[in-house]
Here is the input.
Amino acid sequence: MDVDDINSITVLGAGNMGHGIAEVAALAGYTVNLRDINEEFVQKGYDQIEWSLNKLAEKDRISDDDAEAALDRVTTFVDAGESVADADVVIEAVPEKMDIKKEVYEAIDEHAPEHTIFATNTSSLSITELSEVTDRPKQFCGMHFFNPPVRMQLVEVISGEHTADETMDTIEALAEQMDKTPVRVRKDSPGFIVNRILVPLMNEAAWMVQNDYATVAEVDSTAKYGLGHPMGSFELADQVGIDVGVHVLEYLHEVLGDAYRPCPLLEEKVEEGELGKKTGTGFYEYEDGDGVQIP
Ligand code: 3HC
Here is the structure.
């Protein structure tokens, strides 16, 4: 399929990444079906798109008319089969667990048209393994956005072992249509490029605090003022979701070995349900899902 033949995009999962990807697709002019497992989750994702579009308009990054038109292009769904019935591309952004993702692909494969490309927003899992539960492994690749999708320029486009070159070309061109900068990842390896670098960095930052070498605020200051990162490692963990970081680390640990063992400090946060911005508390506290307060 050529990129010009893409009209309708289904985003599976309305969480942190899913709603942001749906927003990016709607802003690029696509008809978007946003699906999650119940009304409450999908409505929350829709509300977050509305919040974000209003924020972008408030800051003159887009016009009020563009914000309104983008929101009008988004329809919410709970039924997975219905949500993919007219999709040209499905972008899946459900929780970062192999079993959950496989279940989703098994549920939608027979309902999506034959030409539909499946693109997973997985942060680290094997594209090849996921593609093999579908009847369309050639039309399957990774399309990995960064948080918050509406502000981050990069999209990793990842080839699985079975991915056709045509699929890679189309998804790369789609990322460009969305005003993003795609980078092609040629080998399907755990964490791809960014998370192979980023998540161990977050883990090392956590070990520094775990072992009392420095405080959260001190480690974050070094990343910001010494390395020039826009956010400290703990601020970033809160931004992407501490649970997401831990899921990636667990997978890297399982596949690549002990160097990637998740730091208990991160695991404890997940056990306590303090996942970062999305729960209002992580390493920092947040008001209205935003605004950094005291460490
Ligand atoms: N939509 C619209 N507005 C948003 C937003 C969103 N999704 N998220 C935050 N904002 C708003 C804030 O509310 C804030 O508004 P306010 O000023 O009224 O309080 C405003 O944006 C802040 O934007 P600014 O441009 O003023 O601030 P910055 O220049 O600091 O930019 C940033 C914000 C782009 C998020 C920047 O801090 C940044 O680049 N941070 C690093 C993010 C990053 O590295 N992401 C990648 C993570 S890795 C990943 O996602 C992979 C995964 O697999 C783990």
User: Anything to note?
Assistant: The domain at 3-185 is CATH 3.40.50.720 (Rossmann fold). The longest helix spans residues 39-58. The CA atoms of residues 200 and 260 lie 7 Å apart. The pocket of 3-hydroxybutanoyl-coenzyme A is lined by residues 20, 52, 55-56, 123, 146-148, 150-152, 194-195, 198, 230-231, 236, 239-240, 244, 290 (CB under 6 Å).
